[in-house]
Amino acid sequence: MEVLLGNYEIPLVIIKKNNKNIYFRFKNDGILYVTCNRFVSEKEVRRLILSNEKALLKMYEKSMTKQEKYLQYYYLGKPFTKVFDESIKKVIIEDDMIYVKDEKMLAKWEKNECIRIFSERINGLLSLFDNIPKFSLKVRNMKTRWGVNNVTKRIVTLNSELLKKDVELIDYVIVHELCHFYEANHSSRFWEQVVLRYPKYKEARKELRS
User: Fold this and answer.
1) 24, 50, 117, 123: which one has the fewest Cβ atoms less than 10 Å from its Cβ?
2) Closest CA to 26 of 81, 65, 84, 72
3) What is the pTM of this model?
4) How big is the chain by its Cα radius of gyration, in Å?
5) CA-to-CA distance for 154 and 181, rounded, in angstroms?
């Protein structure tokens, strides 16, 4: 079932309930859902859609903008479009698409990728440091920090959102946190340690803040 709104042919789903009023809404799937009383005919629903066409067009275009943002996915600094397919057995990245079964599969893959990539980057950067104690890596979503170094417990925590960033930015955050093993604060001596290993740290900080 479809309905014409402006130049758009939009799928229409009518949901019959015992409510008195009629409700129009769009989800991320681009379908117009109309909830109405079970005695309201399809003809009446279409008449009401037509009489509210201008408002519904705005709602539709707004929902499509939200959908585009929802489907946009960044991985290591590059944009991809999420494609959901129930037959997918594992996450596949091909050209500018990332194919997944559902959000649950994507979340699990992200978690594994964070551990894999962050560990690889850390191992590659350790040669820049002397006398770094053994430490453990943790990954979690953080609202205000890209990384945290608990020097006492020797735990380096990296923000899972870093997976969306370019590898060079991931490297900067790792260097930053490892330098805290030398200087626990952000004194001038700390930044001297950072610049030795990541000369363009100011540019990286600026990009992460934006």
Assistant:
1) 123
2) 65
3) 0.73
4) 25
5) 9
- How far apart, in whole angstroms, are the C-alpha atoms of residue 18 and residue 51? 23
pLDDT digits (tens, 9 = 90+) for 66-123: 777 878 899 999 999 998 898 999 999 999 999 999 999 999 999 999 999 999 999 9
Largest Cα–Cα distance in the chain? Answer: 77
CA distance to 4, 8, 50, 51, per residue, from 12 (Å): 10, 12, 13, 16
Closest CA to 117 of 167, 172, 173, 176: 167
d(CA 55, CA 28): 18
Structure-token pair, residue 18: 């015992």
- DSSP assignment, residue 9? E
- What CA–CA distance (Å, rounded) separates 126 from 116? 16
Cα–Cα distance, 173 to 154 (Å, whole number) = 16
CB 2 within 8 A of CB 11: yes
Looking at this protein, which amino acid is placed at residue 33? Y
